[in-house]
Design goal:
The complex is a heterodimer of chains A (695) and B (303). With 695 residues, chain A is of the alpha+beta class. Chain A is built from 15 helices and 35 strands. In chain A, strands 18-17-19-20-28-27-26-23 form an eight-stranded mixed sheet. In chain A, helix 2 packs antiparallel against helix 15. The longest helix of chain A has 30 residues. By secondary structure, chain B is of the alpha/beta class. Helix content of chain B is 37%, strand content 23%. Chain B contains ten helices and ten strands. The relative contact order of chain B is 0.16. Classes of the chains: A alpha+beta (695), B alpha/beta (303).
Chain lengths: 695, 303
């Protein structure tokens, strides 16, 4: 038996503490004052000088608890277990098989599987092995098994994935297996193409001392690789004869050192080939291919851009979903006088933009009617009184049902007591800051409206000067999103039912401030209206491995008629994935490249929700790292020239720390100490109670 | 002493309850009003020089008592009336040495002695006696000469005093004897941590002038029974000396020594015609007083 920190035993002197408690401390308690010691002095002194130990059991318990506590702190371990392991020459082998899509380059995958199977076949009778398949994540088969058949079966059945290479997860898994192993020889065999892009995730992984990493590169010694991939697509929308047309532009990259000429790039929409365009690619360069406009209807279409196949076909395809352009219908309600002038800047700003497009209509508060709200997502009360009576009630209902109202304060803004209950508070007479004007002192950049401006050089809303604004006293549960430099709220948001109301304390023209002539005006106004309309831009594609929360795609599900349905996703390979069941309801993990379809689980829909999944293009960069460099990084030893091969019989020496950590004897000792203290407490309490009763 | 014995005519008043009563006058009245019998007989004889009040002149009044100054101011005859004088001076000698500050419960021996003195002086005042007070430790600390009008002064003094210095009977008793020129009643209240023979020798001069000497020894229950359990250091309140003590080892010897001390003091007092009473501070004051007066009445018949 050994101890990692034997110096703690010096603390055995603490065993004197219970003795002191029993013998000395009892006489040194607080002094008892007594009127006179006249009589006590007459009694012979020596008869009460000594004290005896009255309870040996308590003394034993206390001493034992302290001794065990010290033993626990000294971190004991048994060497007998180590000796048993030393006699064994068995190995703990972990086979790390890279199945990222770059392994599909040429015949790398076949070579990798063969190499992994060879390792299994070379295992000794007592060797234990684990197969870990990895791309961006890691998945281990049966752990530390001697069953070669299951290992070979796992390797044989494994398929190439759509993920990118990340060495961190599998190496951490291997590290954990080594930590748990009691064998002396630890060996990891990494079968991969050793892409440099995956190395960064391995930082922080460190194999135990004595562990060996054997890299098996399947690059077949290629000095240079050639790879053409579709890096992404862009949509250019236009309206022609009342129909929306989308022009798809695809960006093609060439990562090889040779130029590519006459490369055919084709576009397919909803499975039908539409157009093929030939392009030229410079060495290690890219080009953009623009296809002819495609007319799309009122439902999303799926598209695929494909290049001629090369040695790595996975990244030669790019899938997308082109949704019809979204339109946000906005109604600007102004005052009878000067409504047009007040809304000039606002109308012009909303007239720009296609994603989404804003369909703006204007009216005056006198002419405002409940019918005007039909089909609108946002109403802007621009420098005017609110509609009252039935129209006001309808406006309240409009917000509760999910509509958005923007109240813009101005010269003519009043809010009568019988106005609709929309405001987050009450506003007062204008504050005049003529001169230098006021600025925004606080802006909540975490809010979706201002998030756009949070990054450096992305527009500064605080540079606008405000010469007049109306102070607001917030009385309702509301969030102040921006404040002027004197603390008065500038932008306040109130949630009512499913909708929301924004109060802007100054105008949206250039009368009370100069925001309208600032560059940030247009994106700011767009963000305001998009937020009020609860607009979310449709995602044309996601990367493989990304987890989608379908619960957040309410509008898309509603468009597909799946809002209330039990959902099932059909993967590109045809696998059915229930996404409305259990605790992970609504979440879909995209693992395959291609088009996922989300259907009603009971009745397959004719127009399902479609999701395009593409591979991570970082994996297209086939630049590799020197395998020995990676091995050195993980084992902390310089390797190369086979110097770190397991053939040399490098064995792992169990250090005292290893033994102590594995056995964890201190933990049991602490439990014992706890039990002893509990027993001590119970016994001493019982003794005290008994003594009191006797008194 | 048996604290559970019921006493006819006396209310049971717990000293701990009395301790909560701030005013000594109220406390004394509370206790004394419960008694039937007095401390001693006090016939009204003669007149004193203590002015009491004015009264309108009535035919037959002695014109020597007409207050001529009042007549000059009011043009009416008023006669002066004086407090009736008594035969007895009643003096209390209260030990205020540091050992008297001991109290195992809420009430200290000094508090108990203070209440006892207050009760006795109040009671004597009701009998028209003249009351006085001497407090002492190793010397006389304060002195209030006996007077029929000194009840308030005595009570005020009792309220004010605090135990502070080590005590000794010899010097204060010797000096006090000089003050008692006139026959009276002297009550000495102390814990008498002194050799009994020496203590009585020091007390004897007080009774020389025909004084009626009464000795009240006040002890705390802890001093009599020694109920301590935990071994600890015992510190002498007066000398500050500290001794490690294991109470269970010496309880028997200690209680025996205390009882012997009490018995010796009581016996020597009796032999020298000094009334002696032991007061345990756990006992209600009126109860203790009643027991003492009953004993004293019985003794007076014997004498």
């Amino acid at each position: 038996m050994g101890f990692l920190a034997p110096l703690f035993f010096l603390g055995l002197a603490a065993l004197a503490v219970p003795v002191i408690i029993h013998m000395i401390q009892r006489e040194r308690k607080e002094v008892t004052e007594f009127p006179s010691l006249m009589f006590i002095r007459k009694i012979p002194f020596h008869s009460f000088r000594r004290q005896r130990i009255r309870n040996w059991l308590l003394l034993f318990l206390r001493c034992a608890a302290i001794a065990l506590l010290l033993a626990a702190f000294s971190r004991p371990f048994f060497r007998a277990a180590a000796l048993a392991a030393v006699t064994s020459t068995a190995r703990e082998v972990v086979i790390l098989l890279d199945r990222s899509y770059s392994m599909g380059y040429d015949n790398r995958w076949d070579r990798a599987k063969t190499a992994a199977a060879d390792v299994v076949n070379q295992l000794g009778p007592d060797d234990r092995a684990t197969v870990i398949l990895f791309d961006s994540g890691a998945e281990a088969g049966p752990r530390s098994t001697t069953d070669r058949a299951s290992l070979l079966g796992l390797i044989g059945e494994s398929e190439i994935g759509s993920g990118s290479t990340r060495y961190g997860p599998p190496l951490k898994l291997a590290e954990g297996i080594f930590e748990d192993s009691d064998l002396l020889q630890l060996e990891a065999v990494l079968v991969s193409d050793f892409q440099r892009s995956g190395v960064e995730s391995a930082s922080g992984v460190r194999f135990p001392a004595g562990a060996v990493l054997t890299p098996v590169a399947v690059t077949n010694g290629e000095a240079e690789t050639e790879n053409v991939s579709v890096a992404g697509v862009l949509f250019d929308r236009e309206y022609f004869s009342g129909r929306e047309r989308v022009s798809v532009s695809a960006r093609i990259t060439n990562r090889g050192m040779d130029a590519v000429s006459s490369l055919d790039v084709s576009l397919a929409i909803d499975g039908r080939d539409i157009e093929t365009v030939a392009t030229e690619l410079p060495p290690n360069g890219s080009s953009t291919v623009r296809f002819a406009p495609v007319t799309i209807g009122d439902r999303p279409v799926t598209g695929t851009v494909r290049t001629q196949g090369d040695l790595l076909p996975t990244d030669d395809v790019f899938h997308f979903v082109a949704s019809p352009g979204q339109v946000v219908n906005v109604l600007i309600v102004g005052n009878e006088r000067g409504a047009s002038e007040a809304a000039l800047y606002l109308r012009r700003a909303l007239g720009v933009g296609s994603s989404p497009a804003f369909n703006v209509a204007t009216t005056t508060v006198t002419n405002f009617d409940a019918v005007d709200l039909v089909g609108r997502q946002v109403v802007v009360l621009n420098d005017t009184r609110p509609p009252t009576g039935q129209a006001g009630s309808r406006l309240e209902q409009f917000v509760s049902d999910g509509g958005g109202v923007m109240v813009v304060a101005g010269e003519r803004s009043v809010w009568p007591p019988d106005g609709p209950d929309l405001l987050p508070g009450t506003f007062g007479s204008p504050i005049d800051r003529t001169g230098r004007g006021a600025g925004l002192g606080f802006v909540d950049y975490s809010h979706p409206i201002f998030e756009l401006f949070s990054a450096p050089r992305s527009g500064d809303v605080t540079t606008a000067r405000f010469f007049r604004y109306r102070p607001m006293e917030v009385t309702e549960p509301a969030t102040v999103l921006a404040r002027f430099d004197d603390g008065h709220p500038a932008l306040v948001e109130r949630q009512i039912g499913d909708g929301r109301v924004l109060f802007w304390a100054s105008t949206l023209d250039n009368f009370w401030n100069d925001l309208a002539v600032r560059p940030v005006y247009l994106p700011f106004v767009h963000r305001l209206i998009e937020h009020l309309a609860d607009y979310a831009a449709p995602t044309p594609w996601v990367s493989a491995g990304q987890v989608l929360n379908l619960a957040e795609q309410r509008s898309l599900l509603a468009d597909a008629g799946l809002a209330e349905a039990e959902l099932v996703a059909i993967s590109p390979s045809g696998e059915r994935i229930l996404v409305s069941e259990g605790v992970r309801a609504g979440f879909l993990t995209t693992t395959e490249q291609g088009i996922y379809e989300v259907h009603d689980a009971t009745t397959p829909s004719e127009s399902p929700l479609t999701l395009a999944v593409n591979v991570d293009l970082a994996e297209s960069n086939l630049t590799s790292i020197d395998p020995d460099e990676l091995a050195s990084m993980l084992t902390g030893r310089v390797t190369g020239d086979g110097g770190d091969s397991p053939a040399e019989g490098q064995t792992r020496a169990f250090t005292s720390e290893d033994l102590e950590r594995r056995q964890g004897v201190w933990w049991y000792l602490l439990v014992l100490v706890f039990l002893l203290f509990v027993a001590e407490t119970v016994i001493s309490n019982r003794l005290s109670r008994t003594a009191l009763n006797v008194d | 002493m048996d604290t559970e014995q019921t006493v006819a005519g006396a209310r049971f008043v717990d000293p701990k309850v009395l301790a909560r009563i701030g005013s000594l006058a109220l406390l004394a009245r509370t206790v004394v009003d419960g008694f039937i019998n007095g401390l001693h007989k006090a016939p009204y004889l003669g007149v004193s020089i203590d002015f009491a009040e004015h009264r309108g002149y009535m035919p037959g009044d002695d014109i020597r008592f007409i207050d001529w100054r009042v007549f000059a101011r009011t043009d009416r005859f008023y006669v002066k009336q004086f407090e009736a004088d008594t035969n007895a001076n009643f003096s209390v000698m209260l030990d205020v040495s540091r050992s008297m500050s001991f109290g195992s419960k809420r009430l200290t021996k000094l508090d108990y002695g203070r209440y006892l003195a207050a009760c006795l002086t109040y009671f004597c005042t009701k009998q028209r006696d003249r009351v006085g007070l001497i407090t002492f430790d190793s010397d006389i600390v304060t002195r209030v000469p006996p007077s029929a009008k000194h009840l308030d002064v005595v009570l005020h003094e009792l309220d004010r005093i605090e135990a502070g210095n080590p005590g000794s009977l010899e010097r204060p008793l010797f000096r006090a004897a000089e003050f008692f020129k006139r026959r009276g009643i002297i009550v000495v209240i102390s814990d008498f941590y002194e050799d009994p023979k020496k203590a009585v020798d020091m007390l004897k001069p007080l009774s020389y002038g025909g004084n009626d000497l009464i000795v009240f020894q006040i002890l705390d229950p802890a001093e009599i029974d020694f109920p301590y359990d935990e071994p600890t250091n015992f510190e002498d309140l007066e000398t500050g000396q500290s001794i490690p003590v294991v109470p269970e080892k010496l309880r028997k010897q200690y209680t025996q020594l205390v009882q012997e001390h009490i018995a010796a003091l009581s016996k020597l007092c009796g032999e020298n015609r000094i009334d002696y009473a032991l007061f345990n501070t756990a006992m209600p004051i009126d109860h203790a007083l009643f027991k003492f007066l009953a004993m004293r009445e019985k003794m007076s018949r014997v004498r």
